[in-house]
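hey m, so remember when u said the tokens were messed up on ur end? i reran from scratch. heres the input so u can diff it against urs
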Amino acid sequence: MEHPVPNFVSTTKFCPRVPDRGWRSWHYEALDCRHSRVLLVTADAVMPGVIIVWDPMTGWQREMYKPDKYTMYRRHHGAAVLCTASGCNHLACHEGPFLVVFVGMVKSHGGCFARPWVFSSETGEWSASRFSLDLDVKAVVLPVPPVLVGDALHFLIEHDAARDLGILKYDMGSTCLSLIFVPVSVRRLLCGDAILMAMADGSLGLARRTANLTIKLWSMQMVSDNVVSWTPLRVVDLKILLPIQRPMKNLILNGSVEGRDIIFVNTDLGIYEIDIKSLRLKKHLKGEKELMCLIPYMGFYNPQSITVDSYTKIIIVHT
């Protein structure tokens, strides 16, 4: 079988460019990364709720404040950044128009509901959807980035007092929110035990780690407007695939690459990238790392004076 060979090989290590104004003395958390942009939010008592869209290749950034009248609390919100340039192939979006989708848990009078807001770079304003979704007062958003499948964003949440996992779906066409239930064997797992995937075939995938060092994978299909079906795809035996020094230590599923059938697994010997179809491995970080989430960044940069892509690189942004 012929192995794929990259057309371009990096001759130097990629170093993200610091924004022209530099980084202020705030603490930042990475929420999402897509279409050549990284989405950050300040997690600082001095200046909470500042959202930043940053291009690591050019150093460009744009700041915006959180949606009006929304109070920021940890694990009560999720967000995504998306290119909106007409006809864009999303290989080198950079300074084109974009949207930020922000979904927040609003808790009031003993209840809870989720509400979406959308920021447009062209208008410079937030718009609130007239739709919301009632949830249990104990519902929280897990600190992992959403995945984009078709015209919908999917956020992994705990949706009740029992901490059952679920998926909060935001349809960008209708601006509606809905709750998707996961397979029964996945409902009582913790963050790091399960991750969402945007599969190469265009479906929503779900991967879970088991106690016997395997990864089980499902694919979701829509049966009707509000009914979904989960189909088991395969089981990956990590004991055969990965060099694991301490089998009793829990592995962590750190993240995935949209549209690539690739997941990241945190082991006691390092963090590995696994292609779940070909089972090819790539080691990214050596040694044990206390990281719960990895957000892959991919971008192409094509200066006007150069007629080909100057470099392609994937880096890891972690929270």
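this time it looks ok to me. Residues 1-6, 305-319 have pLDDT under 50 and may be disordered. if urs says something different then somethings off w ur setup not the seq
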